[in-house]
Amino acid sequence: MEYLNSWFSSSSSQPSYSEQDFDNDIHQISQFPENSAAQIKVIGNRLSRTDEGLATWSYGYLMGTTLDGTVAHIRDRVLGRSEEKFNTDYGAIEQKLRSSNFKAKEFRVHLKILENDLIQDLKLLEGMNRITHTYQSRYAQTSHKGIEELNDVKKNLANRVQGEMSKYLELVEVFKNRQNQVDLTQSILFADKALTKHTSSAPQGDLEAYCYHYNREIHPKQAGILINQGKELINAVLNDNITKVSNNPAEAEKQMTALTWALMDHALKHNQGYDEGTFAIKDSAAKLHSFLMTHPGCYSRPSTHYVGRSPKSHHGIDVFSNQMPANKRTLLFELITQQDGSTLLFIKPENFSADLTIPYDAVMHGYEVIVAQYNKVFQPGSDDLPNMRKERVPVESLKAFEEILKQLEENDFKKMNANLFKNPIFQTENPIKNAKLYGIAFMKAYVDAVSQLEILPASLDMTRFNKSLAGLDHLDQRTGREVFIESFTV
Prior knowledge:
The longest helix has about 35 residues, at about 105-140. The protein has helices at about 20-25, 60-65, 65-100, 105-140, 145-180, 190-195, 205-215, 220-240, 250-270, 285-295, 360-380, 395-410, 415, 430-440, 440-450, 465-470, and strands at about 40-45, 45-50, 275, 280, 300, 315-320, 330-335, 345-350, 390, 485. It is built from 16 helices and 10 strands. The chain has 3 domains: about 20-185; about 205-360, no CATH class; about 395-470, no CATH class. Helix 14 crosses helix 15. The strands form 3 sheets. It has a 6-stranded mixed β-sheet with strand order 5-6-7-8-4-10, covered by helices on one side. Strands 1-2 form a two-stranded antiparallel ribbon.
């Protein structure tokens, strides 16, 4: 394997960096959670590690080895290990699932291991995309056989991950059939729905149309009654007339159902009704949050939403009334931090409980997480479909923002607009990282500040960015396409 000699030389002023060090570092990509991947930065002739953005670990590895060495190492060591682990874990769980001594809880534990394997491989694929892009830029002016080999390695990995996903979905389908959960069929997010890009034209601003598309078992009049009850409940909570959720299970379930319908009514009135999405609510005194926390069935649960702006463990409330909007079965909620230090309450109705004591829902919840991660890699932008109002930063907006930053950097407009570039927002060390963290609110503030510059590149065009925000309100506060609720009209 070819390595740059300077990286493995030993001297009194520099610690040695061995092939084994390299081997250990590059393999660690499969051990880091999203948005906390290892990044290796080159400082002089040594490496130092900091935590930052997904898959940027590739940068240091590329600087520490030649192209041929990187391709060989990834192909022979890293990818080989991950493939062997997935196949071993898959064989074990398939045997468990098809055995006569099948136990749902035990199956869930084993399936979680397989889910982790699949997520690691998805992250590895994203890292491979970054590696390929870096090397293509480095050898852009030369013909290098390693580029073709690297592309082949990436293609083979992508094909393998797709095959692993198919195996995983087959296991979930067999599990569903074994459980025979007939009463849950309306709330199951089937694979063909999750893995396909939809162009749903379902009306997003009409209650009757919403019930027809997402809640056929609920008559619009019944939904209207729940909406009014929810509005009354929210009004009572905000005015301190009600501070706790009922201790009666049936009444508590009714309260959660009504509250969720009231939130969806707000979305429908702003043409933002959805099948999958999130509410972001200005709850300055945290009254709604405090109210939800008193629910007798409230439990802590892990979450991948608003990473970096909220605790890793969020809260969940299961609602099995079969009357929730879009047949949801649970509410995920937590307070999140805005860039200015203020907080918002996010509430996300979900299809399945994350309570591990309910095996069926736990399996299906894990399934949805895997599907979301898979779509992120193979179908970027699938969270921005008409029937979705998710808090994920829109792919189109982020790409347009990156184009604006590139134009500014290439033309060195910071120097040409020295006085105006003293705006605090331009002191942001990593605008892209902040854009991914705070979303539209940060990008819009940054672009607005750019528009105030005295001198702008002739080629600078903000049309694409502005077009990507069409139809969205509260641009100074929102992260993505979530339903943002400033205040309630009761």
